[in-house]
Amino acid sequence: MLDRSVEIFLDDLLEFVEDGKVVPIIGEELLRVGQNGNEIPLYRYIAGKLAKRLEISATSLPPEPSLNDVVCHYLQAGGGPEEVYPKIRPILNQAHFDPPEALLQLAGIDRFNCL
């Protein structure tokens, strides 16, 4: 059974959604992509590709490096931040994956009109 304050909050939230007054904020936990039959976070996908583009050895990174791990390693090795950003765009442009199911479900809520 829900606490009464939670029930009130959920009722209010549903009213706001119904009125089209809610803007969903998407966190990185919903941004997942398929890779080799597994679903992984988008940022980890980018991190792996970026490490290759920046010629960072996998042995110098954690087993599942974050984007932050890759960039920090590159900067500590003397690379410049202005060299990193241009490498990310082609990674995303060359990627081919379907939107995650959670985002499709969220997009299916007609009250979230983002026009």
Topology:
Blueprint lengths: L3 H15 L13 E4 L2 E4 H12 L13 H10 L4 H14 L6 H7 L8
Antiparallel strand pairs: 1-2
Helix pairs in contact: 2-3, 2-4
For the biggest sheet, the summary is: 2 strands, antiparallel
Using only CA atoms, what is the Rg? 19 Å
Shape: elongated
Distance between the termini: 38 Å
The tally of beta strands, per DSSP, is: 2
What would you say this structure looks like, in words?
This protein is mostly helical. The protein has a domain at 32-99. The protein has 5 helices and 2 strands. The protein has helices spanning 4-18, 42-53, 67-76, 81-94, 101-107, and strands at residues 32-35, 38-41. A two-stranded antiparallel ribbon has the order 1-2. Helix 2 (42-53) crosses helix 4. The chain is elongated and about 55 Å long. The chain starts with a helix and ends in an 8-residue tail after the last helix.
Provide a compact summary of the structure.
The protein has 115 residues and is mainly alpha-helical.
What attributes characterize this protein structure?
single chain; mainly alpha; two-stranded antiparallel sheet; 115 residues
